[in-house]
Amino acid sequence: MNLLDLPEEQRDHFSKSVQVLVQKHRIDPNEIFMNALESQEAPEMNYWMIKVLIQEHFVSPQQSVGQDAEGETVKPLQAAALLKNVGAVAALLEANAFQGSVTDKEFQLTARIASKQEDQAVLGVMMKYAQAMGHLETFMRELEGAPVH
């Protein structure tokens, strides 16, 4: 799945870049992951960096990246939505960086963050993912607060 429809050949450049950062410069892959998560760079860059780090350097897409005001754990998917990082959101969705389905807490929390911020890019990627999973209608009903049958 490639939610942003990016050319696969772009991946090699980012794979080599991450490899140099990790091996030559001895930068922890988790640190690179956090930088890509917080990045304001082009969605393509964030997408490939996150994807490469998860797939080639075994960075956990479900690790805790902090806590919110109520002390709840913030996961990378929610952080990416808060930061309006559509590239990271797409890569994390593809990595199944949430527990449950598109109607469960983690996915819905991310969707509500994007909705509250009126972030059409992130919402669009989430809808595309839900559609690919065959659950667009139930995702939309849950997001709108309607009962799911």
List the helices and strands and how they pair.
Blueprint: H1 11-23, H2 29-38, H3 43-57, E1 66-67, E2 73-74, H4 76-82, H5 86-94, H6 105-116, H7 120-132, H8 136-144
Antiparallel strand pairs: 1-2
What does this structure look like?
- By secondary structure, the protein is mainly alpha-helical.
- Helix content is 59%, strand content 3%.
- The protein is built from eight helices and two strands.
- Strands 1-2 form a two-stranded antiparallel ribbon.
- Strand 1 (66-67) and strand 2 form a beta hairpin.
- Helix 2 (29-38) packs antiparallel against helix 3 (43-57), helix 3 packs parallel to helix 5 (86-94) and helix 4 (76-82) packs antiparallel against helix 5.
Supply database-style keywords.
149 residues; mainly alpha; two-stranded antiparallel ribbon; 2 strands; 59% helix; 3% strand; globular
Helix content: 55-70%
Q: Could you say which overall geometry the principal axes of the C-alpha atoms support? A: globular
Order of H and E elements: HHHEEHHHHH
Structural class computed from helices and strand pairing? mainly alpha
Count of individual helical segments? 8
Distance between the termini: 28 Å
The average pLDDT score comes to 94
What's the alpha carbon Rg, rounded to whole Å? Answer: 15 Å
E-strand count: 2
